[in-house]
Design brief:
seven-stranded mixed β-sheet, Rossmann fold, about 210 residues, single chain
Length: about 210
């Protein structure tokens, strides 16, 4: 997909240290904007019932979703699938703040692999943050995942009543929600708003949550 890089710099406007991930020249994520990544885990786990939850995270990034998931005491195992080996290495080498909270937790397993092509373990919750949105994918090979067939394959890796939660940079997509509902039964799009210190205004992401009820 291109060269992945981690950059640490001081944001001159705010005078704070920032960690950024770039794919080529394309920004993937920044430590300035982590609210939606945290909410992906919180909203997904809030929809899950029971104890001893096995959780899969697709896309490690800066680690906010994975670390937030570990804060839920019901989580028994956390299986993180990341396609790009350097991203896992950044965490293992402690190049990111609080990386030890993730790598030092015995519940965590970091796996190099393509989330969309891997045989995922059967789980109670899947949290996915890889593409910009279901319609704006990082690689053409990802597009089939967001179809009824692709989502059905994911649903088959969930326990009954399992939860699939997805981060998106775009506003709620009614077409995708329809497809999601046809496969899972219970769906909702949460608009997550947060202050944007660079613009002085507000930005928003979407977190889709689907519960297997069919």
């Amino acid at each position: 997909m291109g060269e992945i890089s981690l950059r640490r710099r001081v944001e001159p406007l705010l005078q704070v240290e920032v960690h950024e991930v770039l794919l080529g020249e394309e920004y993937l994520m920044s430590s300035l904007f982590t609210v939606a990544e945290v909410e992906l885990a919180r909203l997904g786990l809030a929809a899950a019932t029971g104890e001893d939850l096995d959780v899969v995270v697709g896309g490690l990034g800066l680690g906010w979703t994975a670390r937030t998931a570990l804060q839920d005491e019901r989580v028994r195992t956390l299986h993180v699938v990341e396609a790009l080996p350097p991203v896992i290495e950044w965490h293992r080498r402690g190049l990111l703040p609080h990386a030890q909270d993730l790598t030092g937790d015995p519940r965590t397993r970091l796996v190099v692999g393509d989330f969309f092509a891997s045989e995922l373990p059967v789980s109670h919750v899947v949290l996915l943050d890889v593409d910009h949105s279901p319609r704006h994918v990082l690689h053409p090979s990802h597009a089939g995942f967001y179809t009824p067939g692709g989502l059905q394959r994911l649903r088959s890796r969930l326990h009954p009543g399992g939860v699939f939660a997805l981060w998106s940079d775009d506003p709620p997509d009614d077409g995708f929600l329809t497809v999601l509902g046809e496969v899972f039964g219970e769906t909702r799009a949460h608009v997550v708003r947060f202050a944007n210190p660079l613009t002085g205004g507000e930005s928003a992401n979407t977190v889709y949550v689907a519960v297997s009820r069919l």
